[in-house]
Amino acid sequence: MIEGLLNIGFGNVVVKNRIIAIIQPDSLPIKKLKKAKEANNQVIDATSGKRTRAIIVTDSDHYILSAISVDTLMARFNQTGE
What is the span of the domain harbouring residue 67? Predict the structure, then answer.
């Protein structure tokens, strides 16, 4: 994997320095925020039809849905290139 990119599953990647947060999608406030973003066409679904396990918040004010767990994404985010 090229350093500076985060693999979020199913062949999708995000530039690491554009990520503000990686959050769990389960709480009611997050569900409401996601619904508001969907209404403004600011949600990118990268789950390939799988269950959403993480939401990636970007500096462009978009939410990216991932089927990869928050723990796995954080481990990938913190990896350095070898």
Answer: 5-78
Q: How many domains does the chain have?
A: 1
pLDDT at position 1 is 55
- Global pTM? 0.92
Residue 60 burial class via C-beta count within 10 angstroms: exposed 0-12, middle 13-18, buried 19 and up: exposed
- What's the pLDDT band for 72 if we cut at 50, 70, 90? very high
Helix (H, G, I), strand (E, B) or coil at 57: strand
Tell me how many helices (H) and strands (E) the chain has. Answer: 2, 6
Sheet holding 63-66, edge to edge: 19-23, 54-58, 63-66, 43-45
Cβ-contact 54, 23 below 8 angstroms: yes
